[in-house]
Amino acid sequence: MHPFQCVLRARRCLRRGPLASVSWLLLRTCRAHSSVPSSACPSPQRQQEDGVWKDFSSRLATGPTFQDFLRSASVPPEQPSSSEVEDPPPYLTVDELLGRQRRVYLETYGCQMNVNDTEIAWSILQKSGYLRTSNLQEADVILLVTCSIREKAEQTIWNRLHQLKSLKSKRLRSRVPLRIGILGCMAERLKEEILNREKMVDILAGPDAYRDLPQLLAVAESGQQAANVLLSLDETYADVMPVQTSPSATSAFVSIMRGCDNMCSYCIVPFTRGRERSRPVASILEEVRKLSEQGLKEVTLLGQNVNSFRDNSEVQFNNAVSTNLSRGFSTNYKAKQGGLRFAHLLDQVSRIDPEMRIRFTSPHPKDFPDEVLQLIRERDNICKQIHLPAQSGSSRVLEAMRRGYSREAYVELIHHIRESIPGVSLSSDFIAGFCGETEEDHLQTVSLLREVQYNIGFLFAYSMRQKTRAYHRLKDDIPEEVKLRRLEELITVFREEATKANKSFVGCTQLVLVEGPSKRSAADLCGRNDGNLKVIFADAEMEDATDSRLRVRAQPGDYVLVKITSASSQTLKGHVLCKTTLKDSTAYC
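RESULT FIELD:
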């Protein structure tokens, strides 16, 4: 057995974090030079000189042995400092891991987690000597951070790859070869299919493999395809400080946990992001402190199931205290015990900077014990806005989705939240046309939208995903035209009810965090209120409440008071009153 085969099998058994070896796909490189015909491994796009190719092949053939792997697994490797390049695996040299100022172009698709993943990937590449570019034409490396939640999201990437194919083929010979990589959930879900279907793709990196990007790109420089799509039980990138992609941003995403254990029958996330694991509280607080020092005014705590956060890194907190779930809710897994929970983290984060707003997404309705709700009510800088994904208004469909609650339990939770947090804004997710959904089930979802009156909604037609429980056990039996018709009906009802809910803000004064100019008019500014609704107001001089002698104009990152004059299903409009602070605004709102 080739050493790489041993390494591969061991890694699959241990399912641990990033190790020195590159991926299962390097197996293809090894085999291509043994018994497998050369056509099985894509040829280099540019003719390699014999000496260079033989040198790489010889180092690859004498790569790490099984004993090397066991040694690296038994002792966790030290993370490189910001001024160092990680020790190379035996088949690469330190020089080959250096970016040599090659320019990287990053495109992000999908959810907020992918935005954060982009910042993590760039942080890792930046330390290896790569440069960032926003100009596609001058890029030496193009990386697409992808989404797999629905078929449409993946089709967007396939279309983008076709566009990039001509860019790669027209690359001037005087320049270094253009390398293209697929990162994130689509790489994890489709794996080798991407490389077989699109020969122009050079690297794949799953959500837990971003530390290996310098190694994967180094292998790609030899003309080979390379990938690491192995999931981890412990990778959280806790020691990687994400690099903000927008220097002028007023807010940032902070990933606090990765993966999901809920195993809802429709959802691909557990298969593309892996099992739940949480970052140590200390590392999260350090990142939030740094963002505060940089002047950011809002952080959103991120996770696929953010409020199930559980930090088990500190032994003294690993007691036998069971998880408190929302009343009437259950889980698809054995009850977890011990660790520092989400309420503790939220408390600590909110104390770092009283002038920094705190949000979190995306939560599961089962993980809203009273201590979380009380904290949101008591802290001025924790936004009074909760995302509460319902997915359906039918108890029968919710059971098929394996959501762990009935319609009745969900509605009871809504009432409890509104009683606990007066004036709270609510948002939700809904799926139209899930397996077996009848017209009566659909009407129950319509009635839930009318009953709750959400301020913000995210609604989609069902898209079956391979590997999910629904794929194996249910039938995608709702015709596409019926799904789309039901989706349109849900959207129409949501907009009607959201307009009613948002009109309750008319005549009220709202604290708004200014983001910048409105996209529709340079004469207007745009920001968001505590409930995460977009607020538009004229860019005009105003009083500075912190110093009444001053007349100022709002700048990104400022808090301003805006009196609301009109509302729609998505936007509030008003006129600005004065510049203020989060602390002082409580006297007005």
